[in-house]
Amino acid sequence: MTLSGARGRVLDEKQRASASEILDAAAKAFSQRGYAATSIDDVADVLGCTKGRIYHYFRTKGDLFIGIHRQSVEWALEAVAPVAEQADLEAAQRLREMVRRHAMHLMEKADYMRPAQHHAEMNLASEGRDKREAVQQIFELRRQFEAYFTDVMTAGIAAGQFRDADPNVLVKAVLGTTNWMSVWFRAGGPTDTPAERERIAEELAEYAMRGVLA
Fold first, then answer.
1. Quick one: which of 68, 122, 170, 203 has the most CB atoms within 10 Å?
2. pTM of the model
């Protein structure tokens, strides 16, 4: 796991755990308040520590926000890559499972994924040359993530499993529908159970497939 913004140091296991706890607290704070309304003090309050501990790893609020974005994309890649690269499965099988896994990831990492969908706020967090470079790396990871879906969609169209359409448009429709969960899903609600999450993920996967099957 890369902890973007952790002062560019190589962290040992204990330090990585501490930095991860800070990102967890920041993700929760940003998820509840949004970027502009969240301060380092708010993050410290969530974590129950002093600001000094946060500044030991992250120089600015922007570093925290960028770190959350990068972690969320890295987790998303980890969720779908094993299935996307499983060449012995048909494209339709891969796409269904990729959507299901992505939906589960969105629910399991809801605090991270909600801030990660606020693309406009990334501009506020990315002031400074170093931050711009970090943001470009995040965009590259996003392109890799979307490319997995595009490659599978293209293969399915070529095999006649998916309808003959622009694979890029189909992928954006599928991901747009799934990513919208960051707006309406609330972890820890009265109906939020493992079984309910599985049901939601299966429903989204079924919906996505009905939109692309030939």
1. 68
2. 0.84
